[in-house]
Amino acid sequence: MHFVNAKGILSPQNGMNVYRGCTHGCIYCDSRSTCYGFNHEFEDVEVKQNAPELLEKALRSKRKRCMIGTGAMCDPYMHCEESLQITRKCLELIERYEFGAAIQTKSDRILRDLDLLKSINEKAKCVVQITLTTCDEDLCRILEPNVCTTGRRAEVLNIMRDNGIPTIVWLSPVLPFLNDTEENIRGILEYCIQAKVYGIICFGMGLTLRNGDREYFYQALDRHFPGLRQKYHGKYGYSYELKSERHDRLMGIFREVCEKNGIVYDVGNCFQYLHEFPEKYEQLTFF
């Protein structure tokens, strides 16, 4: 872990990453890809120590309130957040200035900030996004070794439901030969039904691999699933998109279950919901 003073904190789309890098250890993580220009080890998390000051300045300069997103690149609730509490400090500002928040995480540490999430949702809008990849707890401990398992994340979704906070699930990635089964997809969907999630973001049954990410993924396959790397190479070579051979059937199940249970599954509609700020709160009243 190392500390920097960032020059800015919000992207043009109002996305925010207070950390750069991650310690969750997910074997498929796209953020490891060389295209993102990391100049330090991925696990040597870069901490934007001035993030709260930058965020307050940015919020005060906005003409209209909007949704502030976090977690798209690096999880805001990794291990160092327990002591640093930079994510919490930023949420306190979002709550104070009555903006909205769309938070993406795999960690149950988000429950620490339930008080703020509820207040943000009461004043404006708060959406919690949770990634679910496999309902097999043992497999989850291999794919995502340093973060709570799927069962615990499902409990987080239920707690959000009970507190009136809307949720969206990222069903991604689906790894060929590992979790691309009907049993797994139906199991994850059952978690979503129980939690009454607003929507599910799924880009298809498969995964993508870029330089940097690909090498890390294949090394993990060699450690945990001997011989599977060769199977991947034989079927996909060095393709960017690795689609499951069961893609069409599994996507049919996915759409059928979502439609039956009133779950939004169109990716565009899910992203629109994440960015929509309640109209009655749009005008700022700073003095």
Strand and helix map with partners:
Layout: E1 2-4, E2 15-16, E3 19-20, E4 46-48, H1 51-61, E5 67-70, H2 81-84, H3 86-96, E6 100-105, H4 114-123, E7 126-132, H5 137-143, H6 150-162, E8 167-171, H7 182-195, E9 199-201, E10 206-208, H8 213-224, H9 228-236, E11 241-243, H10 247-260, H11 267-275
Parallel strand pairs: 1-4, 2-5, 5-6, 6-7, 7-8, 8-9
Antiparallel strand pairs: 3-4, 10-11
Helix pairs in contact: 1-3, 3-4, 6-7, 7-10
Overview of this protein structure:
The structure is a single chain. The protein has 287 residues and is of the alpha/beta class. It is 40% helix and 14% strand. It is built from eleven helices and eleven strands. The model has no long low-confidence stretch (mean pLDDT 95).
Q: What count of helical segments does DSSP give?
A: 11
User: How would you write the strand order of the largest sheet?
Assistant: 2-5-6-7-8-9
Shape: globular
Radius of gyration: 19 Å
Which structural class do the helices and strands define? Answer: alpha/beta
Give the helix proportion (percent range): 25-40%
| Biggest sheet layout | 6 strands, parallel
Instruction: Compute the number of strand runs.
Output: 11
Assess the beta-strand content as a share of residues.
Answer: 5-15%
State mean pLDDT (0 to 100 scale). Answer: 95
Q: Spans with pLDDT under 50 lasting ≥5 residues?
A: none
Termini, distance in Å? 38 Å
Order of helices and strands: EEEEHEHHEHEHHEHEEHHEHH
